[in-house]
Amino acid sequence: MYVKLIREMVYLWRAVDHEGEMLESYVTRTRDKKAALAFMKKALKRHGSPEAITTDGLRSYGAALSELGTREKQEVGRWANNRVENSHLPFRRRERATLRFRQMRTLQKFASVHANVHNHINHERHLVDRQTYKQRRSAALAEWQALAS
Fold it and tell me: Which among 4, 12, 62, 99 is least surrounded, fewest beta carbons within 10 Å?
C-alpha cells in the first residue's frame, strides 16, 4: 500500500493474520527486494513462521522469500490477499481525517499505534448480536482506559 507524504510517495508494508488483525507495519521509500526482505525478517522474527504467506504478485516478495528459504509457503492468487487489502480501509479513513502525513517517522508511529488500537477495539459487529457486541466493546474500552492511566 502506498501513502502520500507532503512531497513523495512511501510504501506501507503490512502483515495481517487469518482473522484480519494487523500484526506488523513497516514504512519504506522503496518497494524492492531489500525492503521486502527487511519487512519479512521483522515480521517472521516477531510472530514466527506461518503455515502460508499470502502476497500479491509483486516479484520482490518472491525474491525475499527465496532468500529466507520459505518460498514454498508463498501463496499468490487473484483474490487471495483480499483480507490484507480490506484491512487498509480503516487506516485510509484515519489518514484522510489527519489530512495526510508530513514525515515518515510520524507515519510509522501512527501506523503501529493505529493497528494496536484498531485490533483491540474493533469487534466484528456483523458476526455477533447487539448485546454481546456491547459487552465486548465495554470490556475493551475499560481495559484500554486501565492501560492508559
Answer: 99
Whether the model clears a pTM of 0.85, i.e. scores above it, the answer is: no
Q: Are 46 and 31 in contact (CB under 8 A)?
A: no
CA distance 80 to 62: 15
Give residues with Cβ within 8 angstroms of 121, minimum separation 6: 137, 140, 141, 144
pLDDT of residue 41: 92
CA–CA gap between residue 137 and residue 122 (Å, rounded): 8
The pLDDT tens digits for 4-55 are 777 788 888 888 887 777 788 888 999 999 999 999 999 989 888 888 888 8
SS3 of 14-51: EEECCCCCEEEEEEECCCCHHHHHHHHHHHHHHHCCCC
Please, is 78 exposed, middle or buried when counting C-beta atoms within 10 Å of its C-beta (0-12, 13-18, 19+)?
exposed
User: What number of residues does the chain have?
Assistant: 149
Does the CA dihedral 148-28-9-87 come out positive or negative?
negative
